[in-house]
Amino acid sequence: MKKYLLIFTVIALFITSCENAQKPKESSNNDIVVVDEITAINIADFDDKAGDFVDKKIQLEGTVDHICKHGGQKLFLVSNESETRVKVTPDEEIAAFNAELEGDQLVLVGIVEEQRIDEEYLKEWEEEIKAGSDLSDDKGEGMHLGGNVEKGGEGADLNEELEKVNRLRTMLEESGSDHLSFYSVLCTSYDVVVDTTENKE
Q1: pLDDT per residue over 114-170, tens digit each?
Q2: Quick check: is 3 in a domain?
Q3: Residue 112 CB neighbour total at 10 angstroms
Q4: Nearest one of 177, 171, 175, 132 to 154, comparing CA atoms
Q5: Which of 38, 39, 132, 153 is the most exposed place for a label (fewest CB within 10 A)?
Q6: pLDDT for position 37
Q7: pLDDT, tens digit, for every residue of 54-87?
């Protein structure tokens, strides 16, 4: 009987220790502590990996290739290793990017966002074009491809806009999927990388 009691006690202690090990860490005032995980991604790998990090924070380092002249609402980050261009938009706190950042090397942290384009979206866009609608509500789709498939904005050439719709429709058909995904980054913070070798002889 004592033998069975000892075995039962050992099992009970083991179960209790496992339960305690799986509990989240708590601070002294019993609040659960949440730590943001930030994954560093190379710009060259962005197109391949972005889909795994939608709504998650990542870190990118690259050169500012271009900043939107209309209020600094987007910039494009590039690197020497590839032709990939990553579209980056500012969050509410940053509000806009300073034009003087163009050409600078940045390390930025942001949240990956996904823009999905399906046949329904393309039909709506096509109807807007045929109706001569103002296309100034730039949704930014395809910006990492150099702007060849984004809405042209106010005053856009309607024939060029139709070409974009047709190009996207072809891409959609060739993809074998019911949608296309284009990824960008909502920037929450950034730092300019200072080249310390510039002033050295």
Answers
A1: 999 999 999 999 998 888 766 655 444 444 344 555 676 666 788 888 999 999 999
A2: no
A3: 23
A4: 132
A5: 132
A6: 87
A7: 999 999 999 999 998 878 999 999 999 999 999 9
- Contact predicate 88/108, CB 8 Å: yes
Phi-psi region for residue 147, left (φ > 0), alpha (ψ -120 to 50) or beta?
A: left
How many structural domains does the chain have?
Answer: 1
Measured on CA atoms in the order 139, 144, 149, 151, is the torsion positive or negative? positive
CATH number for 68:
2.40.50.140
Q: Tell me which residue of 137, 117, 131, 112 sits closest to 57, measured CA to CA.
A: 112
State the Cα–Cα distance between residues 157 and 167, nearest whole angstrom: 15
| Full-model pTM | 0.72
Evaluate whether residue 27 is within a structural domain.
Answer: no
- From CA 97, how far away is CA 95, in angstroms rounded? 7
CA distance 126 to 132: 10
Going by C-beta distance under 8 Å and a sequence separation of 6 or more, which residues neighbour residue 171? 149, 180
Measure the CA–CA gap between 53 and 119, rounded to whole angstroms: 25
Q: Is residue 118 part of a domain?
A: yes
Nearest to 62 by CA among 39, 89, 81: 81
